[in-house]
Amino acid sequence: MACEGNGMSDERIGEALIKDVIEEELKDIPSEDVPPLTPLAVEVKTEQEQKIVNQLSKMIRIIGDRVQGDKEFQDAIDGVAQSSSSKWDRFKEVASKVFEHGITWERIAVLFYVAGRLAVRMVEAHLPQSVTDILRWTVDFFRNNLLGWIREHGGWINSFSELAVASMQSMSSMSSRMSGLVIIFIAGLGLGSFITWRLTR
């Protein structure tokens, strides 16, 4: 059952999640260099939606740590930032690369993470106005290419188990920060289970 059946919106959750991931990636950039993102994406309407966004955002960050070491993805992100041709076309190329083997929850998480890293690269390249473009492009791509799939697969609430597994696989490959990530994972799994239990009652 998609989130809509519980009074929650998969579209709102997805847009808020994209914004949250981008803001998280930009948190170490001086605030005067970052344009406001609030008017561009809808806000969640309920506490349950906010809890889902917060939990998914944590799992995406863990999965993103694994992608951060992928030179091919980093080169693709750099290619968009440095491109003199249409950045929208380059963004679509990167998105197509993420989903070249089909849509999965983990690949959706990777796209959102890539959008956040791309936003950081744009600010570093002194193109902060492009951050709003990245948010808009990612939201458009999400609505046009991913939202239908998300609804067909039970909504965001059904993403927790697959993303938790992907998060755990990411964590097992990182020994130095293992203990902190395990705590986050266990807390996230507990919160995800609680939210799922509450919504299915």
UniProtKB/TrEMBL annotation:
The chain crosses the membrane at residues 178-197. Residues 60-156 form the Bcl-2 Bcl-2 homology region 1-3 domain. PROSITE patterns: BCL2_FAMILY. Keywords: Apoptosis, Membrane, Transmembrane, Transmembrane helix. GO terms for biological process: extrinsic apoptotic signaling pathway in absence of ligand; intrinsic apoptotic signaling pathway in response to DNA damage; mitochondrial fusion; regulation of apoptotic process; release of cytochrome c from mitochondria. GO terms for molecular function: BH domain binding; channel activity. GO terms for cellular component: mitochondrial outer membrane. It holds the Pfam family Bcl-2. InterPro entries: Bcl-2-like_sf, Bcl-2_BH1-3, Bcl-2_fam, Bcl2-like. Belongs to the Bcl-2 family. This is Apoptosis regulator BAX isoform X1. The gene is LOC108898556.
